[in-house]
Write a structure and sequence with these properties.
Elements (H helix, E strand, L loop, with lengths): L2 H12 L3 H41 L2 E4 L3 H4 L6 E2 L1 H9 L4 E16 L2 E10 L1 H4 L17 E5 H7 L6 E7 L5 E12 L4 H6 E5 H7 L5 E2 L1 E6 L5 H9 L8 E4 H4 L1 H39 L1 H9 L4 H37 L1 E2 H4 L6 E4 L2 E4 L1 E2 L5 H18 L1 H8 L3 H6 L1
Parallel strand pairs: 4-8, 5-7
Antiparallel strand pairs: 1-10, 1-11, 2-9, 3-4, 3-6, 3-10, 5-8, 6-7, 12-15, 13-14
Helix pairs in contact: 1-13, 2-11, 2-13, 2-15, 11-13, 11-15, 11-16, 13-15, 13-16
Length: 410
Amino acid sequence: MPSFTMSRIAWRNLWRNPRRTALALAAIGLSVTLVLIYDGILRWESDSMLETITGPMLGHVQIHAPEWRRTRAMERTLRGASRMVDQLRRDPEIVGASPRVYAPALAALGEEGFAVLIMGVDIAQESRPTRLLAGVTTPVSSHRVLMGRLLALQMGVGPGAEIALVGQGVDGSLANDLFTVAALIETPVDIVNRQAVVMRIDEAQSLFVLPDEAHEVVVYARDAARASALAARLRGSQELGGAEVLDWQALAPSMVDLLDLVQVAWVFVLVLVLIAAAAGVANTMLMATFERTHEFGMLLALGTAPSRIVRMIVLESLALGVTGALLGTALGGAVVAWAHHTGIDYAALTGGGPSQISAFGMNWSLRMYPRLALVDITRAVVAVMVTSIVASAWPAARAARLHPARALRD
């Protein structure tokens, strides 16, 4: 019997009991819908976490002078920073490289002083989307700085205020000057919001006597998944002169564990969906097999091979699973597409409150934009197909073992 004809017969057999088939399709479709919605939320969460971790502060790879991360000593710097950054920016696997200078200082408005962290950065590079100063459009010219909003609130400082910054240069000299607050900033990085005064890197180098030096160069890879390979290649580069080169996973291992936890959650939900799909298919096909015992006995008595009956039951199960999966994919995909377009405000769903939470030194947005990748849909459909075939094993084995004479008497 041609496979196309057998498929038509299998499809027609499914609808001998339309109510039971419709309930099974609804169960499978709803399960797939839920897993795709959850998949969309987890993908957004994973991408958002990675972007929040790497974009504003860590980058995909960081380069430091040896021992600087351990000691934070002002004198441990990367020499010839501008040449190093130019070479990195010419690398085809790198989309951005930003040098930074860090220095402790006191900021004063009047007589009271506050401990601050001076960050000298490349303003143009850091103002790009997802970077540290994303969304900041205020020009930062000579003797103008940006200040973390929470620090400004503590100091009672607003845009246009003049503050004194006092620190110590790397040569032991007094580093002090007056600066105007150009704007207040709010970033995903908690320490920047609470303690940072951000200025142009050339001014920070001049203030702390660090000519063409940097404490850190943050590198953004073209492909974030290849950050480890990029770090390994840069580590062996003679141009970096033995500098410490680390990818973001080595810099923030706790965040890697957090992302792994998201994957575990996805697997757990997928297993629940497969159990639901298997139960729906197995129940439907087993009931159908019991109802058609007489029919199968007649087919066996007429010389039909048991393997052909097994193939028919497997095809029916596969048709049931695929149809339910496609219905669930259509509904789940539509819901995720709508949610991605409009966004889901988790704070509003829970009765209001802050629009973001602070954890691990970062600020995480509570507005979700779920999205799906083709692999998410493919995995869900293939998983249901495999589950349907496995779930048909019991009904198919029962039908294949039927004795024609005994089945005709039932």
